[in-house]
């Protein structure tokens, strides 16, 4: 009994000492310091740094420029690496890098401007325990769209260069339309993944579409005109065309406009809605062009002899001009009665017509015909007019023709 009391007393003393020790430990625990906002919401420690507005703007511009340069560099490397390695693997790797650059830049800018908490509240990016699946699926969608866009671009390049099914204009238009469809679909998928209600967005987009359609009729007309040009293909880059009295070589075709290089060095931009509403003359579409000049001979000249001389002159320029076609053969015909001469037309066909070739051919035709007529005593007359004067005589006006 005594032993039991002694053990109980010792246990009571031990419990008392433990409680006192715990109280002492609690007593000496320092007060918790208030947690800084930077420790909660800042990712890179930039939000708590005192920076002026100018420094933040400058840093943001530099960061955006560096990120853009890296994206361009990655895309150029992708084109080179795709020739050596498996293209889809290269697309996948570069897409991951591009997405990482964009996401990293966005986070740094949000941290710099103190919006990390807002970004976290909006998309839950930092709460991976709640939204890990949404984040991963969204990244997978972005990477998949980037890879598929690269596949579409390579397929279109193959259709242009190897199979020659499409021209460069059709390739550009098709690529842009496919990119809009792909990224639009990706945006809708991501919004659905994050359970964002699209009802208000679609209603607002409908009203916005009506307003934009009314305010930008010409722009939308040019855009639709670019699609029409892609489907109808009235001309291609490098063709010699006449559009709305503007003549030149087509240098570029975009969704909005057609660019023409004039023969005098001018640079002409024609909106596609104007192109589709005007008459288009393509002088080089068939790969050949008829070049004709006119010459008048005196009325006293034998037309058969004149035709023979002019034909020989036209035939002679084929040896000097390799681009003059032998078929169809040169042609010389009597066109009409002129004021002071019988008008002949001499015509030849040339290959791959350009302005330089047309002007050179016309020069050779005129020179050869003039030399042949002079050597064969065929007169090319000057313009002549017959003047008639009228004088009243006994109340009657009589004609008094005089030739000058």
Provide a brief overview of the structure.
With 404 residues, the protein is α+β, with helices and mostly antiparallel strands. The chain is built from 12 helices and 10 strands. It has 3 domains: 53-217; 218-282, SH3 type barrels (Roll), CATH 2.30.30; 288-375, 2-Layer Sandwich (Alpha-Beta Plaits), CATH 3.30.70.
Can you walk through the features of this model?
The chain has 404 residues and is α+β, with helices and mostly antiparallel strands. 57% of the residues lie in helices and 17% in strands. The protein has 3 domains: 53-217; 218-282, SH3 type barrels; 288-375, Alpha-Beta Plaits. It has helices spanning 2-28, 37-41, 53-82, 87-112, 116-123, 128-161, 168-193, 199-215, 217-232, 272-277, 303-316, 355-375; strands spanning 240-243, 246-253, 257-261, 267-271, 280-282, 288-297, 331-337, 342-351, 386-393, 396-403. A 5-stranded antiparallel β-sheet has the order 4-3-2-1-5. The longest helix is centred in the middle third of the chain and has 34 residues, at 128-161. The chain is elongated and about 110 Å long. Mean pLDDT is 78; it is low at 1-12 and 16-41.
> Helical percent range?
55-70%
The first-to-last residue Cα distance is 166 Å
Number of E-state strands: 10
Beta-strand content: 15-25%
Radius of gyration (CA) equals: 42 Å
Low-confidence stretches: 1-12, 16-41
Number of domains: 3
Query: What's the number of helices?
Result: 12
Major sheet summary line: 5 strands, antiparallel
Mean pLDDT: 78
